[in-house]
Amino acid sequence: MAHIGIDARLTHYRVGGISRYIAALVQALEQLQTPHRFTLLQSRKARGRLSARFELARTWTPPHHPWERAALSLELARRRFDLLHSPDFIAPLRGGKRHVITVHDLSFIHYPETMTAESRRYYNGQIAASVKRADHILAPSEATKADLIDILDVSGDKITVHPEGVDEQFKPLKAECSQPVIQALGLPASYLLFVGTLEPRKNLLGLARAYRDLKLELPDAPKLVIVGRPGWHFEQLMADLNKVGINDDMIIKHDVTDAQLPAVYNHALALISPSYYEGFGLPALEAMACGAVPIVSRVASLPEIVGNVGLLVDPHDAGSISEALAHALTDSQWRERQKEAALRRAAEFRWSDTARIALDCYQRVLS
User: Fold this and answer.
1) What would the mean pLDDT of 69-90 be, rounded to a whole number?
2) pTM of the prediction?
3) Residue 75 · residue 89 · CB < 8 Å
């Protein structure tokens, strides 16, 4: 029996894709039959436990601290893990006899200007050492694997792709279940939807300009609803959005909870993800599981996620995005066909598969 540690500290400090990945992976691993002993690292400030089955270790070292790799190594010295999984890119100098990391994307290399200087220093200064130190790397998509090979010169044999899954709560809902949520949030009965962290990499400015062009062609087009929490350079992004001139037709919601999100997806005519870069693209998958049509960039991992469903657009061309929105709004028969295709596609992504691939990776590294 091996002792495996999973670093879940980030779940206390940040909401978002990586924290959701950590929580979902832990919950799926709990359901698997394994002889191994698991211990979760959680912040000493965190309330509650991510797992009722696995052991818990409270830690003092916060994630993304300049001295994190050394400080966490000292904390873990007495733990004697046979393997430590670091799901947030950067592993400690020493945490276990073997190390597995998850690299979700290399956006900080592709688009450094969209991040704060502090974040650039944290990731760019440590990612090369971290991938070299790791015994194996998990990546959520073939696109991220290709980036690791091409940009950081990692051997392909050292990388395993394990796509993320979609939670069971994301599914088509009856109106009596979803409508009260929509009313509570003050949203219209239907709309075009964006979900994600509000930061420049998500190309919200390009989406806003495309929507402005759409309104010139279709004055009765439904409102654009933007759901997400502030990210890097948020204030400047909001200032730029205000200049586009669609404030009367744009609704921004920062306070949508995970429990409310399925209803929000259910009332969307289409989910638009025009990002310049994504390591996976979980909102597109969640939206498809609820029956929403995905309109996503034809870059990085997004085409992998949607497959043949929905429409692919050029994130650098507002006209491409506008044309796709117009097609989705004016062809109701196509939209209904795409809804069924979206449900079938989303059903292929299961957290249980993600966990099984991770567990298989642990066992190969341990052996």
Assistant:
1) 93
2) 0.92
3) no
